[in-house]
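Propose amino acids for all 398 sites.
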């Protein structure tokens, strides 16, 4: 899967995706963040502090676990899980939130603003801001606030200001709009810590870089444990941060198939999904170009996923490039398959996954029986399901 050109280019493009589709005055602010990131992140002091926090605060490296009982139940390929759910705060989000919070402190910012869908980014950022001593403001759709109540409580305990968003569909896309508007009131003193590999340059690059530790660890751990590489690497995709973090280390391994798993929701033949790669077209969204779900006038469509962290109408620009180059495949899993994977992993392995991660588990469960017993699938288990447990129990009548 050799990609020889650096990504992104100097304008922030991954092929024809990404960039800065923003007003000139905002471009100056984004370039300031880019320059600060490129300068500060290369210093030994920044690297040492971040690595120390990854080890002693987050608990990295997270383990790669052989899901033996699940594999035996399904037959076929062995399924392995990269246990990002074991990180402090319960998901991969803490990886880039610590990086963004440290960058904000080095830049002299007074407040960090962000959106959140499932609440994992919000909890992780509130945690990171508490650690480095910065004010934190999180915008969250009212639908998600009701659905993800445990994470809402955690954010409040951690000291962040939670802003309910009542506009539009009252979910993730609207939370992004609300948070960005607040950020623009004082971009000199505030920084917008985007929660995925989306938004204008440099955020897709920054978040990818901070999340790349997932793939680096996974590749080394898998070789050490199994003596080679997995045949398939799978991760869920909304904006795409956990997936690009996992994929990044395997891009030069031609023997490894990379699969991003989108939410098919109630079906790709209905309007109730968020499968931007499967059903979207090229357009601009939140300051960058990507595949997105949009109406005839180019406006973002309302989207839906049972997993609040995946209901975004676009996708990270690097994922778009990987799709176009044939370097990664993008499949869709519906709500029923997701819930089945959620319950199966919980009851067969004693691991309750986030609904987002359960999409990736569901895809692995689907393809494992079609593969041979000497083959392996590595799934990025991007988060744990504490936040989803009550919702799933109510949905399934448990």
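Proposal:
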């Amino acid at each position: 899967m050799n990609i020889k050109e650096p990504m992104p280019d100097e304008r922030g493009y991954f092929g024809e995706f990404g960039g800065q589709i923003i007003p000139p005055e905002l471009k100056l602010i984004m370039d300031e963040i880019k320059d600060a990131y490129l300068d500060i992140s290369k210093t030994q002091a920044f690297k040492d502090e971040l690595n120390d926090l990854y080890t002693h605060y987050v608990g990295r490296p997270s383990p790669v676990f052989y899901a033996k009982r699940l594999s035996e139940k399904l037959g076929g390929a062995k399924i392995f899980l990269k246990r990002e759910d074991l990180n402090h705060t319960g998901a991969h989000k803490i990886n880039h939130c610590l990086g963004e919070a440290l960058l904000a402190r080095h830049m002299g910012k007074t407040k960090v603003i962000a959106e959140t869908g499932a609440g994992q980014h919000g909890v992780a950022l509130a945690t990171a801001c508490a650690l480095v001593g910065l004010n934190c403001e999180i915008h969250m759709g009212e639908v998600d606030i009701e659905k993800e109540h445990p994470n809402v409580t955690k954010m409040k305990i951690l000291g962040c200001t939670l802003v309910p968003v009542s506009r539009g569909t009252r979910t993730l896309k609207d939370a992004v709009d609300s948070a960005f508007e607040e950020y623009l009131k004082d971009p000199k003193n505030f920084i917008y810590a985007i929660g995925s590999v989306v938004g204008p340059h440099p955020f897709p690059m920054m978040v990818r870089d901070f999340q790349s530790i997932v793939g680096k660890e996974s590749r080394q751990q898998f070789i050490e444990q199994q003596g080679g590489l997995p045949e398939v690497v799978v991760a869920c995709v909304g904006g795409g941060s956990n997936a690009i973090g996992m994929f990044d280390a395997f891009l030069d391994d031609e023997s490894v198939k990379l699969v991003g798993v989108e939410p098919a929701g109630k079906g790709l033949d209905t309007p109730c999904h968020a499968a931007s790669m499967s059903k979207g077209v090229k357009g601009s969204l939140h300051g960058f170009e990507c595949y997105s779900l949009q109406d005839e006038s180019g406006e973002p469509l309302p989207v839906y996923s049972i997993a609040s962290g995946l209901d975004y109408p676009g996708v990270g620009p690097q994922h778009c490039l990987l799709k176009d180059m044939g370097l990664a495949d993008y499949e869709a899993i519906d709500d029923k398959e997701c819930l089945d994977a959620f319950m199966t992993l919980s009851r067969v392995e004693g691991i309750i996954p986030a609904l987002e991660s359960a999409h990736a588990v569901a895809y692995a469960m689907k393809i494992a029986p079609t593969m041979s017993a000497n083959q392996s699938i590595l799934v990025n288990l991007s988060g744990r399901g504490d936040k989803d447990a009550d919702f799933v129990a109510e949905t399934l009548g448990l």
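The first helix runs from residue 24 to 40. The chain is about 45% helix and 20% strand.
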